[in-house]
Amino acid sequence: FNEYVLKPAQKLELDKIAEFLKANQLHIIEVGGHTDNIATKEYNLKLSTMRADVIKSYLVQKGIDANRIQAK
Question: What is the pTM of this model?
Answer without folding.
Answer: 0.91
